[in-house]
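Morning, I've got a small favour to ask if you have a moment. I've dropped the whole record in just underneath, so have a look.
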Amino acid sequence: DSSLRLVGSEMCIRDSTDVESEKLRSRIAAISGLGPRRLSREGIARVDVRRWRRLEASASDAMTAVSVCSAEEAARFCGRTWVVPNAAIDPGPAPTIDQRLRDRLHFVGSLRDAPNLEGLEHFAEFVLPRVRRRHPSCQLRVVGAGLSPDHWLHRAPGVDVAGRVDDISAELWRAAALVVPVAWGGGTRVKVVEAFAHRTPVVSTAIGAAGLGVRHEHEALLADGAPTFAEACCRLLEAPELGERLSAAGRELFTRHFDSQLVVEALAARIRGVLAHPA
């Protein structure tokens, strides 16, 4: 989270990367099925949700506006909110020579983030083996910092841990698909926006694509549960024309809503409007 205070003005805007109460609320849904400890964890989480909502309401009262990254979070937030989408820089045209590896799935994200790490572990343990039974050469390339050197994913069959990379474009342009297997979290996922910008097909859980206006079978394949997610990955590996259709629609969505130049210009115009006509 960050705040912007304009010097010489009473205006203060809080930019909320995640609405913490919504992040915790999604965690409550994800912890179902954890066994005897589930009820105690769920009870503690519900108390934390109420505490965060009181804190968010108090902070909102002190702000000119609170910026959130999706209309869904704005609808649940108290006070005056602005929707400022997570955005990405347009990487420009894809390479003229097709560099995609038709048996390569990519995961992108910080592995210091609990939803990312838990989602990746679930994918590697329960989804990837199903995909590799139909496509034995399929590899999952993991891009992102934060995985401990002794983590079992370094030794998992079919997993290539790249860690942090300097050029995300080179990775996304080589992927047959980006997988987003997260089961909980807040905000919206920049990795999905970046994939759309690079014309990379996406397979995601519903919550992984939440807040982005993504439609199943149009901009991405949405799947929850290991068998369904694995089937969606196999469909993309087996039908390049499906990936081309999804990536074209994803690129169009990026161009209309998530290009960083458009988002910055819209935010600047909104701030100028408030300065000119303060409430």
In short: Residues 7 and 245 are 48 Å apart (CA to CA). The beta strands are 2-5, 12-15, 65-68, 81-83, 104-108, 139-143, 159-163, 177-180, 202-204, 221-222. The two ends are 24 Å apart (CA to CA).
